[in-house]
């Protein structure tokens, strides 16, 4: 009876698999060979969980030198499958995006792509699939969200029958920084070259590191890399303004602003400049040097000195003129008064003995003497109005001045039947004597140049910015448009002395008084429908 011999030992898995399926046995042997190769370092293997379960990708042991090369190269390198999954990454790419190698493999490359450059990368990938290679610059996104400028070189590779995309990423951050520095350098040079002022940059040793074209012209000699003190021999009211003094101020945190200095040059003589200096610090707040700006004020200083001389000469001339006018008007008025008095006495004593023509001639003489005396008084008032305000300005009450003015013209007001209305006026920062002259001239003109109806005069005041605007309005004969400027000139009159007497000085005095306090005066008139004289003066709020 035949029997079945059984082995004394259990059969191994390979024996059991081989009995069931020769194909399974072959696959098992292949897997075992792969594992042995991985353990011995002959091949690399990557396991990716795909839609069909775990997949193993290997690199044959014969390619080991190339694998070492990829690991050692400075650029980041990754391999993608057709779905964008990362099959392989070297340590440089992991460092580039700021994460570990084992967290990259098997992940989607899209997580490292800047969203704005996704379409650009898709175009590069399509080009590589069509032509085998492509390249372009875009931004990756680091694991912490920062953008990383890179240049990607894409190559389509057939790996064991599977289409893969090999990408080499070159970090462009240092290049971009260098480009930015270069642009800043070019911009700095352009600013220096185009600057209208002279600009000099010195280090902590006082050596010129940079300078503008204007600085070279001002020095009239090469100054780059030379000592500042050798290029510019600065002098000042407090002694030399040298590099040591400037740098000492910078170390103390005291920037220099608008320091007047002089530059002595054998070829060009002495130049005047305004010197300003600001410190230059490194990121650690250590002093690197300073930037010096030189503004050439030679012409301006010469103009200021010439203007000062002319002003002084003019002041002396005006002073002499005022003294002469005062003396002349004072000395001449007395003989004129005597002439008028003697003429009147002659007329009274010999009135019955003189013929009518002689009496008329004496009357003309008296009238001329009185008019000349009035003219001299007006000139005296004018010179006093144009003088400098030596005494401190006092605050005056124009309401009180108006009351006195109306009392002065009491007889003329009564004779003409005039009505004068005055609103409450503010206190003004004007000498009372000048305010009196203003109101007496303007009210007097309103009473003099009246029409057929009794005069109506209205005085008002209102605030205009930092000045008070005072107006004197009448219903008189008005001022023609072409005379509105001329009437404020000296000796300018609208009418002859036949109907309206006067010297033609009153409004000129008003203008000088107003200008003396920083104000102005003008007239508004609609023909023969009256006039409105307006002037502005400083004063207090109501």
Structure, described:
By secondary structure, the protein is an alpha+beta fold. The protein contains 15 helices and 18 strands. A six-stranded antiparallel β-sheet has the order 9-8-13-12-11-10. A five-stranded antiparallel β-sheet has the order 4-3-7-6-5. α1 packs antiparallel against α2, α11 packs parallel to α15 and α14 packs antiparallel against α15. The radius of gyration is 52 Å and the shape is elongated.
Outline of this structure?
The protein has 15 helices and 18 strands.
The CATH class of the largest domain turns out to be Alpha Beta
**Overall mean confidence score, pLDDT:** 78
Q: Do you know the CATH architecture of the largest domain?
A: 2-Layer Sandwich
User: What is the radius of gyration computed over CA atoms, rounded to a whole number of angstroms?
Assistant: 52 Å
Please indicate the percent range of residues in DSSP E strands (runs of 2 or more).
Answer: 15-25%
Total helix count? 15
Ends: how far apart?
Answer: 145 Å
How helix-rich are the residues, as a percent range? 40-55%
**Total strand count, please?**
18
Q: What is the 3D form?
A: elongated
CATH fold name of the largest domain: Heat Shock Protein 90
Q: Which homologous superfamily in CATH is the superfamily of the largest domain?
A: Histidine kinase-like ATPase, C-terminal domain
> Helix/strand/pairing class, anyone?
alpha+beta
Neighbour order of strands in the largest sheet: 9-8-13-12-11-10
Low-confidence segments, ≥5 residues, pLDDT <50?
1-11
Give the biggest beta sheet. Answer: 6 strands, antiparallel
Tally of structural domains = 4
